[in-house]
């Protein structure tokens, strides 16, 4: 179960994303506000070093998306 601080951070980040017109997902990777939302989610999951993990996720996603296009 999420603690209230993690839940509030995710809600705040979702609100920030909701108010914007965003580019397609590949163009969002690594940039605000997408990055802050993803970090908040990883922290809530208890992931150690969420920035490093997220960089690895983005790298893997970018590689896979490049193969498609």
Describe the secondary-structure layout:
Elements: H1 4-18, H2 25-28, H3 34-44, H4 50-68
Helix pairs in contact: 1-3, 3-4
- Taken as a percent bin, the fraction of beta residues is under 5%
User: In terms of per-residue confidence, which ranges show pLDDT below 50 for 5 or more consecutive residues?
Assistant: none
- What gyration radius follows from the Cα positions, in whole Å? 13 Å
Number of helices: 4
Overall structural domain count: 1
* Average pLDDT number: 94
Question: What is the terminal-to-terminal distance?
Answer: 38 Å
Q: Tell me the structural class.
A: mainly alpha
Shape: flat
User: What is the string of helix and strand elements?
Assistant: HHHH
Question: How can the largest sheet be summarized?
Answer: none
What's the total number of strands?
A: 0
Percent helix range: over 70%
Question: Mind explaining what this structure looks like?
Answer:
Helix content is 71%, strand content 0%. The mean pLDDT is 94. The chain has helices at 4-18, 25-28, 34-44, 50-68. The protein is built from four helices and no strands. The protein has 69 residues and is an all-alpha fold. It has one domain (4-68).
What is this structure, in a nutshell?
By secondary structure, this protein is mainly α.
Write a concise keyword list for the protein shown above:
69 residues, mainly alpha, 0% strand, flat
